[in-house]
Amino acid sequence: MRKWFSAALLVAALAYLGYGLATLDIFNRAGRAGPGYFPVLIGVLLVLTLAINVFKEFRPYRARAASQTGPMSDAQAMSNAVGADATHKDMDSGDGSYNRDVLVLFAMLFGFIALLPTLGGLLAMIVFMLVFLFVFNPGKWVVNLVYSAALPLGLYWLFKIMLNASLPRGLFGF
Predict the structure, then answer these.
(1) What does the alpha-carbon distance between residue 48 and residue 81 come to, in Å, rounded to a whole number?
(2) Any long-range contacts for 28-31 (C-beta under 8 Å, 24+ apart)?
């Protein structure tokens, strides 16, 4: 199932890249970065990383199919199926912990969106990163604090200072 999900994401990324190339100008008349520069850059990075992921997902199946020459007995087929199941056992545990993590992440995202008008873009990003990292990366206080400050400050620098894009301003003016 994972391999098909990865392939579907690759198709979606290709569609996103194609849409960006067809509808947005990468450069403006002055030769500077236009409105399509950032979406096309993101689209190219998405396509590259997802293509690598799809290749990695399909490689074990292709190698296993190539190594099986001649007719296979039912016992061999069952052994191969059990072996393939065991390699992905850690990802498909079925214990519901991934469902819980997804729900927690969605709750955090809704909290982030709710905090944007009050705290503003920068402080809401810092709070979101702090909560996210302390939930999903527990026990690493220093690393979590550094990332929680560095990533939002880097994004603030990129969007607000370099690209002159507006970010939500909160009660504190950030």
Answers:
(1) 31
(2) none
Q: How sure is the predictor about 27, in pLDDT bands with cuts at 50, 70 and 90? A: confident
**68-105 pLDDT, tens digit each:** 655 555 545 545 544 444 444 445 455 566 788 889 99
Amino acid identity for residue 35 in this structure: P
Domain boundaries, the chain: 2-87, 97-162
Q: pTM for the complete prediction?
A: 0.54
Tokens of 147: 């990332």
Q: Is 36 helix (H, G, I), strand (E, B) or coil?
A: coil
Residues 162 and 117: their CA atoms lie apart, in Å, by: 23
> Residue written as tokens 């994401």?
9
Q: What are the C-alpha distances in Å from 172 to residues 19, 121, 126, 130, 169?
A: 38, 11, 14, 19, 8
